[in-house]
Amino acid sequence: MSLKDLPEEERPRERLARYGSEALSTIELLAILLGSGTENRPVLQMASELLAHFGTVNALSEASLAALKEVKGIGYAKAVQLKAAFGLLSRIEEKKQGIVLDSPEKVYALIRSEMSNQKIELLMVVLRDVRRCRIHHEIIAKGTLTELLMHPREIFHEAIRHRAHSLIIAHNHPTGDPTPSQRDLQMTDLLVSAGKIVGIELADHLIIGQSSYISFQEKGLIKGKY
User: Check: CATH 3.10.450.50 for 3-95?
Assistant: First the structure.
């Protein structure tokens, strides 16, 4: 069974085109890469079994062709497709890894394509090492701003897990207007305080609009050097 056999509103490809990759699960993204299943194994089931077999996306990305082919339904062609996709991703990550993020402009350039023109609010963390180089960045939540920023533990969990020296958070305003709300200001103050407690500085908070952004650090709402 291929993705074309699914009802249109359930097809991962169509959902990705309509809502963006952030709206899809890891299994749905894998299903798009695989393209089709077998007669007895729908592609979404195959993607689910593939992820379950390796446990994590990282383990899957590091699997050999032979290891991939051990999963039922994954032949040579699909294994090569997966290796090619993860190979491209690793080259992107290698390039981004050494980026020095010492200004809001550089952070905005890094994340703009992922955060602009979204229909829902997304929260991203950008993690830096002691040299202010990018370690990792990812979208960790989506929904309303209240839901996104009520849990500092989730934000600092990622920073601690990646052993970050400092972090920057960013969220978008689907209205296109990056002006901070009172809630934005309150939650930023809370995160600054939490960062002092755990010893990981919140260096900035960017609000991404349709074609512009606001930096709390530039506005003097977060103190300290970038």
Answer: no
Q: Looking at domain 104-215, does it have CATH number 2.60.40.10?
A: no
Burial of 128 (0-12, 13-18, 19+ CB in 10 A): buried
Task: Supply 206's token pair.
Answer: 């960017």
- What is the location of CATH 3.40.140.10 in the chain? 104-215
Pick the closest to residue 218 from 130, 97, 100, 106 (CA basis): 106
Residues 97-120: tens digit of each pLDDT: 678 999 999 999 999 888 887 888
pTM of the model: 0.58
pLDDT digits (tens, 9 = 90+) for 12-35: 888 888 878 777 788 888 988 898
DSSP 40-83: TB-HHHHHHHHHHHHSSHHHHHH--HHHHHTSTT--HHHHHHHH
pLDDT at 146: 45
- pLDDT at position 5 is 62
